[in-house]
Automatic annotation (TrEMBL):
GO terms for cellular component: nucleus. It is found in: Nucleus. Keywords: Nucleus. The keyword Nucleus applies. This is Pre-mRNA-splicing factor ISY1 homolog.
Amino acid sequence: MARNEEKAQSMLNRFITLKAEEKKKPKERRPYLASECRDLAEADRWRQQIMREIGRKVAEIQNEGLGEHRLRDLNDEINKLIREKSHWERRIVELGGPNYAKHSAKMTDLEGNIIDVPNPSGRGPGYRYFGAAKKLPGVRELFEKPPELRKRRTRYDIYKRIDASYYGYRDEEDGILEKVEGPAEEEMRVRAVEEWKRMEAIRKEARKGAQEVVSVGVGIGAEVLFEEEEDVETNSEAKVNWIT
């Protein structure tokens, strides 16, 4: 008896389940093309559905134990959903809705730095890597920054940045230099005047001493010349007396 009751109960449960499914609306399928949607609310709902699918797959791709092939497949599926999401976002804007693309998340490297990944087609985001897919062979190298080569500046580059300020022609335009140099200039002028006066006094003393030396020398020279003239006269007189 118990077995028959269990069968009847299970059949009743299946009957109730089938009736409930019949009452439900048929499951809608997301349109293949976003342009086929004419309702803004429907377009927003499909975008939200894609966002949920992306969230589930991004959470799944964080597992590094899935294997390389599964990680690559998941990453491809996520990028496909992202492209589809961008189509729906453009359609939402066309229908008069908000522009979700302005606030879209950026791609980051292993250190959390934002990376701009341009798309050659110019439509939508470029190919991105998520979770453990960033550590796959051949992918890690894409996130490594090449060493920066310091380019040696040429003479043209050096002189290109030189202007009048470099030579000090604009130092007095702000008035600060004049305020600082004013007292210093006055002090230097006073010291220069004092030094000039001191040197002038020394030169006067030197000229005075030179004049005294010259006067003494002239007196001695006159005496010597007078003595020589007397000797010449004496000799001439002696010659005259000898001749006579």
